[in-house]
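Need residues for this backbone.
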């Protein structure tokens, strides 16, 4: 059985490529180091997505509860680093550690309370995270078994633990790994990224107790440094508008299939074309109103965990299964109509 090398980062390669060409040599050097490091990690991590492969699931824990451990790499690259906070430990002086610990807990809580799921694998999987990874490392990633956070370069990116949706986004790659196991290429890869953005947004809204109307639908809000002209890494409400900066460039995400980007880079544009299913979810959630993690999130969760989604699924297959999931759970009412309307608006066939 051949394993595919998959390495999921929150900052896409195309954005780091742009920074690596910056006139400011310091910015360019930092981005280049991050790119080189990420390329090495992709080579080293032979991890998750394999056709016909289902991630091993441990026997279920009798008492569903989070089992969090946060490690400090002390700006080194040896994982996981030194343990600095375990489950139930009191907060320490390191704000990054405390934010990550809380973000792990918020994600676990949403999965358990709303969807009845005991951690990422539904069997009490330990949630491990390492912080202060490398020096000026401008990314965060899921490596198939744990999360890792850089401190950012301070000039373009701040600490990657600041947005709770970034923490939840990376954990959601683990959720996908243990469920649909979507291949990290082309449209299935864009769906993989989109699912992480969806659950990242849901965890953020859950922690803030926001309705779909109150939410900003931004991914990575608070991550960009003050000098950057932009609000976040991505916008689910308005893909393509998250940033427009002289150094960072312009957000390339499309909102509909009319602007679908065909590229061989970034595994076929997984971080770019994810804007299309992202926008569909935003349209569904705001059409239904209320708390997005309830009906809209339930439909996406049912689709991800239903066992029918192909590992190489394209947008159309995912859309059809969300329609089926909405009908199976809610019947022929408002939920079904809202799902159909959302996919029609973004130009994805759903029947």
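Answer:
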């Amino acid at each position: 059985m051949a394993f595919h090398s998959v390495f999921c980062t929150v900052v896409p390669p195309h954005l780091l490529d742009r920074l690596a060409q910056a006139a400011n040599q310091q910015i360019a050097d930092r981005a280049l180091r991050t790119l080189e490091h990420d390329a090495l990690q992709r080579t080293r991590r032979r991890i998750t997505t394999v056709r016909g492969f289902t991630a091993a699931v441990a026997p279920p824990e009798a008492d569903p509860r989070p089992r969090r451990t946060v490690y400090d790499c002390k700006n080194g690259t040896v994982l996981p680093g030194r343990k600095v906070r375990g489950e139930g430990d009191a907060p320490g002086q390191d704000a990054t550690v405390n934010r990550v610990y809380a973000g792990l807990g918020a994600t676990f809580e949403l999965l358990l309370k709303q969807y009845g799921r005991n951690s990422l694998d539904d069997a009490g999987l330990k949630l491990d995270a390492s912080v202060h990874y490398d020096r000026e490392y401008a990314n965060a990633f899921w490596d198939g078994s744990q999360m890792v956070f850089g401190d950012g370069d301070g000039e373009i990116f701040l600490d990657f633990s600041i947005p709770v949706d970034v923490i939840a986004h990376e954990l959601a790659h683990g959720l996908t790994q243990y469920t649909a196991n979507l291949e990290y290429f082309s449209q299935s890869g864009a769906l993989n990224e989109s699912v992480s953005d969806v659950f990242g947004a849901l965890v953020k809204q859950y922690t803030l107790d926001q309705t779909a109307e109150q939410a900003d639908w931004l991914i990575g809000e608070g991550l960009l440094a003050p000098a950057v002209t932009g609000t976040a890494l991505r916008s689910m409400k308005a893909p393509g508008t998250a940033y427009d900066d002289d150094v960072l460039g312009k957000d390339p995400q499309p909102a509909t299939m009319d602007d679908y980007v065909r590229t061989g880079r970034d595994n076929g544009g997984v971080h770019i074309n994810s804007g299309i299913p992202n926008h569909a979810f935003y349209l569904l959630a705001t059409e239904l109103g209320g708390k997005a993690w309830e009906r809209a999130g339930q439909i996406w969760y049912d689709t991800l965990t239903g066992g029918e989604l192909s590992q190489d699924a394209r947008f159309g297959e995912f859309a059809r299964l969300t329609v089926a999931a909405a009908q199976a759970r809610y019947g022929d009412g408002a939920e079904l109509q809202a799902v159909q309307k959302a996919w029609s608006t973004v130009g994805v066939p759903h029947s």
